[in-house]
Amino acid sequence: MENSPDAPTLGDEVLKRTKKKYKRARPTSDIGDGSSDVAAVSADGAMFAPAPSMQERIPSYKDRLTGATPNRPTWTDWKYESSDDFLIDETVSDTEETLEQDDCVSFFAEKKRAMRQPWRNALIIKLLGKVLGYKALPSLIKQLWVLQGNYRIVDLGIDYFLIKFEKMEDYKQVLDGGPWVIGGHYLTVRQWTSNFSSSSDKIANLIAWIPFPELPLEYYHSVALRRIAAKVGRVVHLDDTTANVMRGSFARVCVELDLSEPLRPSLWLGKFRQRVKYEGLQLICFYCGRFGHKKEDCSMIIM
User: Fold this and answer.
1) Where are the alpha helices (DSSP H) in 117-246?
2) Could you say which DSSP state residue 118 is in?
3) Around 121, how many Cα atoms within 13 Å sit in the side-chain half-sphere?
4) Chain centre to alpha carbon of residue 3
5) What pLDDT was estimated at residue 99?
6) Could you tell me the keywords of this UniProt record (predicted)?
7) Contacts of residue 101, Cβ cutoff 8 Å, sequence gap at least 6
8) pLDDT for position 157
9) Which tens digit of pLDDT belongs to each residue from 127-176?
């Protein structure tokens, strides 16, 4: 039987094995969210994107954006009540506002509320006067904010970023705290609003420090300081050094400025003229009072 022509030889067996087809498994490292503009970040500032196993369902695009990945528990839903909720909850449907047109996509009120629900717990930030890199943002946030929970970052383009928080305490701290300053530049923080577009957005409000140089000491009283600062903007809080009268060279008050209105270079305290400074705001024209350009570049000056 050994010399039978029908018996397979050793060479035939090796050739047969080499021609056998195997189904190559997809490596788990290739199964990720595939998104370069959405990142999940732990409280210590480290980005994480755990790859699911082969038996786990791959997250959809909606899952990746909202954080509702099917392979790990979702964040507890919470709602922060504020006076700006009307910017998020629109009870009127598009079909009631406009006529149906060929180039118009309309949504009913219930659908709009459902689409906007995942972003209620998010804030929009932008650094004034300086580019804020996407990759450097987690480390900067770690230094600036001491957060208790995790958060997610979404790049909105044109140096705007959306931050979604796991815990309401972190959301409130970032929204109500500040002013936040990075490298001598103010970090603007506001609630997410529906139909937000980076290219068409205009920053109209800013929380900033307002020093009053050489303010007479008799005005270093909480009520007096708040009345004086209210002429500049909405008072947020007083500087601790100013409130405790530990420094007399200038008083410092945190206010919310309306950048769409002219900024005052000074104001009168009876017959005394008091100068007003705007800490961290370099582009202020004290000819027209507008933010965004210097006096020498003001278009309102008649040559």
Assistant:
1) 137-144, 168-176, 222-229, 240-243
2) G
3) 19
4) 80
5) 56
6) Metal-binding, Zinc, Zinc-finger
7) none
8) 93
9) 988 888 888 899 998 889 989 999 999 999 999 999 999 999 999 999 98
Cα separation of 64 and 34, whole Å? 9
What is the token pair recorded at 84? 């700006």
- What count of Cα atoms within 13 Å lies in the side-chain half-sphere of residue 115? 11
Extract the residue ranges of the chain whose pLDDT is less than 50. 2, 25-36, 49-56, 71, 73, 83, 85-89
Residue 31's pLDDT is 33
User: What single DSSP character describes residue 294?
Assistant: -
Q: Looking at residue 284, what DSSP letter applies?
A: B
Measure CA 299 to chain center: 33
What Rg value do the Cα atoms of the chain yield, rounded? 29
Single-letter residue type at 148: Q
Q: List the domains of the chain with CATH numbers.
A: 34-51+59-195 (3.30.70.330), 205-297 (3.30.70)
Residue 268 CA: distances (Å) to CA of 234, 272, 273 = 18, 6, 5
Q: 41: how many CB neighbours lie within 10 A of its CB?
A: 20
Q: To 5 degrees, how large is the angle CA 27–CA 29–CA 34?
A: 120
pTM: 0.67
For residue 292, give the nearest of 301, 280, 283 by alpha carbon. 283
pLDDT score at 35? 43
Q: Which of 298, 290, 282 is nearest to 204 (CA)?
A: 290
